[in-house]
Amino acid sequence: MHGPAVPINSATELMHDVCRQLGSLDILELSQDALESVRIIRLQRLTRQIEAVIPGHFGHGERTAHYALLLAEHIGLDRQRCVELHYAALLHDVGLLTLPRHVFDDPAVPASNDYALLQSHPRDGAALLAAFSFLGEPARFIAHHHERWDGAGYPYGIRGIYIPVEARILSLADVFDTIASRARSWHIALRALLASRGSQFDPELCTTFCTLLHDPAAHRQSGNDAPFSPGTDPVQTLRAPLP
H/E element holding 1? Predict the structure, then answer.
């Protein structure tokens, strides 16, 4: 599932390339529909470049986008908000490029100062993206995608409905794919999300999301293609009843 990672010291050079590519996307002059399509395609490619220097992240951005849009469309977010969420989901981990290599190399629990660095990555990623006009709102969603419903998240510690709904959706999609990919089981990931509804996650959105993921037909009806987590059979894995 995980592609080989490029050394983290390549991240500085990549950061400059990311900014260059985002700058070119910011000044494109096309019709709105064509502009959105071109940006999505280019951001997908850029996301794969970013994931190449972050161990264990291969494919994570596109899968996260798929899950986020599944929920966003279901609850009726309008087209523009869904497009902005799509951008945010693809780029939500760009702030990890600012972290020193040893944070990724050490498999142990991060030291307190390393954990503080990890907590800064949503804010740093948002600051990087906010410089580009088409990423102003996506940057805001990224800044808050590690906040928690109970206020114990980071980097700002905001809670409940004060967290943008797109950030709450992105949080669910991000955590779900992270757990499902590592455990190679959708069922384990669903249980983990449901155990955290009302604490880490918006309880209503969490319940809706897990119900959607439990229905393979919902994925077939979605126009937002992304690979399912490798090593799983979506139909078989999701047949177990939810609590």
Answer: none
Q: Closest Cα partner for 87 from 53, 29, 156, 37?
A: 37
SS3 helix, strand, coil % of the chain, rounded to 5? Answer: 65, 0, 35
Average pLDDT, the chain: 84
> What value does the mean pLDDT take over residues 46-59?
88
How many CB atoms lie under 10 A from the CB of residue 152? 11
Please, what are the domains in the chain? 8-237 (1.10.3210.10)
**Alpha-carbon gap, residue 118 to 114, rounded angstroms:** 6
Q: What is the DSSP string of 180-197?
A: HHHHT-HHHHHHHHHHTB
Residue recorded with tokens 């959607």: 212
**Backbone phi, psi, residue 239, to 5°:** -75, -20
DSSP letter string, 106-134: --SPPPHHHHHHHHHHHHHHHHHHTTSGG
Query: Do the beta carbons of residue 196 and residue 223 sit within 8 Å?
Result: no
The answer to whether residues 135 and 43 touch, using CB atoms and an 8 Å cutoff, is: no
- The per-residue pLDDT for range 192-210, each reduced to its tens digit, is 999 999 999 999 999 999 9
229 secondary structure, DSSP code? P
The one-character DSSP state at 146 is: T
Please count the residues of the chain: 243
Q: Is the pLDDT of residue 162 over 50?
A: yes
DSSP 8-state secondary structure symbol assigned to residue 153: -
